[in-house]
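Our example pasted here:


***
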Amino acid sequence: MSLNSGDPDRWRRFFLGANSSIFEIIEQVIGVAATDHSKEFRLLLSRIAEKLFSQHLSGCTCSHQIDEFYQND
């Protein structure tokens, strides 16, 4: 699999083949990247954080939905 592949189905197959939760994989990958590639990780950290917190990925399109989420917490 190309590391630059943006095809979500290819990545889904990759993660399914790992026999582990995608969230466990993410946690481990962050640790490995921070340890083994610390300079590059620091350079890309803001871009990674932006993706994590973007409304596009969360499926949220309205700010009131965010407010309702935290009020019900």
